[in-house]
Amino acid sequence: MLTVRHTSPRPLDVALTLGPLGHGAADPTFHRAPDGAVWRTSLLRSGPVTQRFVPAGPREVTVQLWGDGAHEAADALPTLLGEDDDASGFTPPPQVREAHRRAVGIRMPRSDRVMEALVPAVLEQRVQTVTAHRAWRRLVRRYGSPAPGPASGLFVVPDARTWARIPVWEWHEAGVDPGRARTVARCALVAPRLEEAAAMPPAEARARLERVQGVGVWTSAEVAQRAFGDADAVSVGDFHLPGAVGWALAGERTDDEGMLRLLAPYAPHRHRVVRLLVLGGRARPPARGPRTPIVDHRRF
Fold it and tell me: What are φ and ψ of residue 144, in 5° steps?
C-alpha cells in the first residue's frame, strides 16, 4: 500500500468532485463508504489501481493506493482532484448562487482515462439511466478484474482488447442493443488513438472522439466532462437536460438551442452551471404525462 497526503491551496470536497466518475449506487468501480471515504478503481498504463480517499480537513485528503498503478495514480492525484480547474472569473447565475456557496470545494475532475469515461457514456445513449447502470455493472463484473487491495466487491474495468472481444450474446444478456455494442467495439479497436485525446485541446479532443461512428456530441461532452475536466462541455442532445435548464434559468422548458442560448453568458463554465443546478435541486421541471417505459433489450 502507498499512502499519499494531498493538501490543496483551496477548499476541496472530494465526494462532490469525484462523484461524476461513478455510474450508479452499485458501480463496481466506485463506492462511497458510510465512513465518508471514497473508493475508486482505474486501469492505468502501469496497471490497475485501487484508491481510497479519506478527507482529513477542508483542504486535505489522505489517499491510500494499491496495485501496480499506485505510483502513477499518486502522481496524477492533483489533476484527478481538479487542481487545474480554474473557476476564477466565474459569476454564477442567481439561481445557483446558494448551491455555489454551499459547494465551495467542488471541482471538475480530470481522470485522463478516455475509455473509462467513454464506455459508460455509450451505454447511456438513448436509454434510461437505470438500464445503462445495470449493463455497466454486469459487464465490468464479468469481464473486469478484482480490484487490488482490501476492497471487497470492487472491480477494475476491462482493457480495450477485452471490450472489443465481448461476444454479441453477452451484450444482449446485459441489455445492450447491437448499435451501442458495436460503438463500444469500434472505440475499443482504436483505443490508443482515443486515449491520446486527453493531451489535446478540448475541441480537438472531442473532434477525434466524434470520428468514431456512433460517438456524437452528447457522448463526447460526457467524456470531456470526466476525462478532460472540461467545465464548459454541455451535453447537447440529452433528453431531459434542455427542459431542466430552461425551467431553472428561465421558468419554462426549452430545447437544445434555447439551452445553449441561456448558458452562453456563462462560458467557459457552462457545465459548471449545470452541475450546480443539479446539486441545488433546481434542474427539476414539473413532471407531465406518464414516465417513458423502460425498454429491456434482453427480451428481443
Answer: -80, -170
| Contact predicate 143/188, CB 8 Å | no
Over residues 138-174, the pLDDT tens digits come to 999 999 999 999 988 999 999 999 999 999 999 999 9
Cis peptide before 148 (omega within 30 of 0): no
- Assigned domain for 281 exists: no
CA–CA gap between residue 220 and residue 228 (Å, rounded): 10
Element (H, E) at 48: strand 47-55
Q: Supply the range of the domain harboring residue 220.
A: 114-224
CB contact at 8 A, 109 and 206: no
Q: At what angle do helices 270-279 and 241-250 cross, to 10 degrees?
A: 80
Distance CA 129, CA 120 (A): 10
Residue from 88, 104, 114, 122 nearest 17 by CA = 104
d(CA 125, CA 122): 5
Q: Into how many domains does the chain fold?
A: 2
Element (H, E) at 42: strand 38-44
Question: Which CATH number fits the domain that encloses residue 204?
Answer: 1.10.340.30
CB-based contacts of 174-179 (< 8 A; 24+ apart in sequence): 174/134, 174/135, 174/138, 174/139, 174/298, 175/131, 175/134, 175/135, 175/138, 175/296, 175/297, 175/298, 176/123, 176/135, 176/139, 176/297, 177/297, 179/214
The answer to whether residue 290 is domain-embedded is no
The answer on 215 and 123 residing in a single domain is: yes
* Grid cell in block for residue 46: 502501469
pLDDT tens digits, 11-33: 999 999 999 999 999 999 999 99
Other Cβ atoms closer than 10 A to 15: 15
Same domain, 134 and 73: no
